[in-house]
């Protein structure tokens, strides 16, 4: 037991590092004292029974959450003397913060225990002050020295005069108001234990009862004394029977010992076989554990392969979907390329038609320009002719004026007028025809010019329409290419989403499978719990019954072992006596003239353990060793022995033939078979080994009963 002394402890947590939290608190626990303080607040604890093995517990908390803890003994803090002070950093155990530390300063000092006044003197004084009440009249009455002559009537009348020093005694027989102690049964054993004072305080009824008991005891003892001779003869007969039974039990004990020796040998062989089987079983268990580990690894790899197979299947499905989408996209691309080629062909045709129409319009414009130039030339020619006609008209007017002047003669005038009038009519006719022709030509030129303008405007409008169609078709192609790119992006995104969702589905399926397995295990556990508990209770009852049986057998075994130990002590005594007898065996005395016999004697007398079989010398180096005839010689300082075949060293010879000759000597009729068998049994079975063997037998019986 450690000597516990009283100490005063002052402790302060100065700083906490490795965490930033303003609301940290420290919970300090020493023995049964527990304090919760903030940092830099001192704790003072007094009157602590501290030993070096006592522990200081420090917990850093934030509200109700534990952040770190420290447990350290006072012996490591203050050494075994439990004195002094320290100011150190300590690392705290924490799952959240790996570098949580606290700076703690503490000081410890011894205090004296408060002196407690001994109550022995007070108790003695109280015992001395309290005295047992005594009645002087009863004392004198019991001793027979009563000198009081006052009659009993007077004493009875004044019995209430001094009630404090009065003792009331009821001397009436069979009083109904007697105490329980008076009505207690009295036996002869209680009477033997009673002293004189108890007999003095005993009432009359109990005295009568005790006297009756004593009379009955005396009568019983008288009867016993009368039957004492008969009992003595019965006792002698029983003693003789007991001796016969002891002899028979001794013989049975010797038989049991012999059978025990055989059983012990069989048990040792069985134990060796069992140890071998246990070793083999352990090896097989190790092999089975290795195989189970390999099976677990194979199961894990199989699970991984199954999972990879599932992933490969999902990827194959994804690739099949991708292939289908790719085929759709290729079909769309082919269709779009076909449309594009058709549109390009149409554009090329339109462009060729536009170029042809342009070339045609250019040729027609050139023709029209040539026609316009011819018409302009004709107009110039007509204007020139018009000018010539006007000039001719002016000349004609002059001629008319001349003619008017000439016509002043009426005869010549008529003729001239007629001729001139005819000429004028012809010329007017020619002029009218020419003007009508010019007007018709002008109209035709105007109409052809308008038709050319209309055709030119129509061609320009057609070219603009075709250019718009080209721009629209190019925009359609660009929009279709953009839509194809968008479709490709959407397909890739859809494939990624599909892969993600399939993976999520697989994970959810695995999680749901795990949850189902856990629920099945839980239900199986809940279903099997009652059955297992009932089986355990039944098994515990069976174990208790079997343990009680084994306990009874163990008690019997203890009794047998005690008897065996006693017999083995006797055997040890016999062995000691036999050892002393063997030690008293005289040394080998050689023949001085024979060097072989001298070296043999030196060898035999120098051995620590004497050889039980004697060498008996014959002539010429021949000896008898028990029943063997041997030849002994000395070669290079070594003793060599020849038995039938070649020579061997004397050590090998003794190690081989000593036991053989000793067994032959033990089995000979001259030897004391009983004593040798007891000695052999004592060699084979020590006091502990026999008990251990019997315990092993009962253990095997208990195990077999448990298994059943």
UniProtKB/TrEMBL annotation:
The keyword Transmembrane does not apply. GO terms for molecular function: microtubule binding. Keywords: Coiled coil, Cytoplasm, Cytoskeleton. PROSITE patterns: GAR (PS51460). Residues 587-661 form the GAR domain. Residues 281-406, 470-497, 557-584 form a coiled coil. It is found in: Cytoplasm, Cytoskeleton. SUPFAM superfamilies: GAS2 domain-like (SSF143575). Gene3D superfamilies: Gas2-like domain (3.30.920.20). InterPro entries: GAR_dom, GAR_dom_sf. GO terms for cellular component: cytoskeleton. This is GAR domain-containing protein. It comes from Stentor coeruleus. The lineage of its organism: Eukaryota, Sar, Alveolata, Ciliophora, Postciliodesmatophora.
